[in-house]
Every structure is written in C-alpha cells, then in structure tokens.
Amino acid sequence: MATDYDAPRKTEDDSESIEALKERVPDKLSGAVDVEDADNPSGFELPGADLSDLELDVVVLPPQEDEFTCANCFLVKHRSQIDHDTPHGAVCLECAA
Ligand SMILES: [Zn+2]
Questions:
Q1: What are 52-63's pLDDT values in tens digits?
Q2: What digits encode the pLDDT tens for the residues 14-34?
Q3: 96 Cα–ligand 1 center, Å
Q4: Domain limits, the chain
Q5: What's the gap in Å between 52 CA and the centre of ligand 1?
Q6: pTM above the 0.90 mark?
Q7: Which of 49, 69, 71, 94 has the smallest C-beta neighbourhood within 10 Å, fewest atoms?
Q8: What average pLDDT is seen over the chain?
Q9: Rounded distance from Cα 63 to ligand 1 centre (Å)
C-alpha cells in the first residue's frame, strides 16, 4: 500500500527536477568557461625555471663542531655567538638583541 504511493511520486519528482535543471544550465555555463579560458593563459605563467635556480643558491654547508645554525636567521655562526638555546635550536646574539 505505502510503496504504491511512493513509486509514482518519485518518477514525478525526477522528471520535474531534470527539466528544471535543463532550463537553468544552458548557455550561461559554456559562456563563462569560454571567458575564463581566454583570460588565464595570458595572466598566469608558472616560473618553473626560477625555482630550480633558487635551490642551487641555497646549498648550505653543514656547520662545524664549533659552529651552530641560528634557529631564527638560519645563518651559521661561531658558538661564541650563541645567545640562548631553544627547542628549535640555538639563537644568535644578533637575533636575541
Ligand atoms: Zn640569528
């Protein structure tokens, strides 16, 4: 009995919603996509070569035993330049000043 009521309702809802969607979707979407496709290529060019150049510049030698890498400025300095230690590493006098 109850299922007899459900079946005709579902088919009615489906046909109505599909027709409503078809009426709203038509030309607006295709037009918007065309405009964005024309704008993007000229505005956004990814600088992939620049990134590899940066990596070559940032080759860092490991600190010697009497040196440390400052946890704040990441410069390698002599241990006499340590102001204090932090959980992330030592901080140099200049950064602590
Ligand atoms: Zn520092």
A1: 555 566 566 666
A2: 666 777 777 766 665 555 555
A3: 7
A4: 62-97
A5: 26
A6: no
A7: 49
A8: 72
A9: 14
Residue 74 has pLDDT above 70, yes or no: yes
Position of tokens 């006098």? 93
Exposure class string for 21-56: b at 16+ Cβ within 10 A, else e: eeeeeeeeeeeeeeeeeeeeeeeeeeeeeeeeeeee
What is the rounded distance in angstroms from the CA atom of residue 63 to the CA atom of residue 89? Answer: 13
Q: What angle do CA 8, 13, 18 make, to 5 degrees?
A: 135
- Per-residue 3-state assignment (H helix, E strand, C coil) for 6-62: HHHHHHHHHHHHHHHHHHHCHHHHHHHHHHHHHHHHHHCCCCHHHHHHHHHHCCCCC
- Residue 56 Cα to ligand 1 midpoint, Å, equals 22
Closest CA to 67 of 59, 75, 56, 57: 75
Instruction: Report the amino acid identity of residue 87.
Output: P
88 C-alpha vs ligand 1 centroid, how far in Å? 12
The answer, yes or no, to whether residue 46 has pLDDT greater than 80, is no
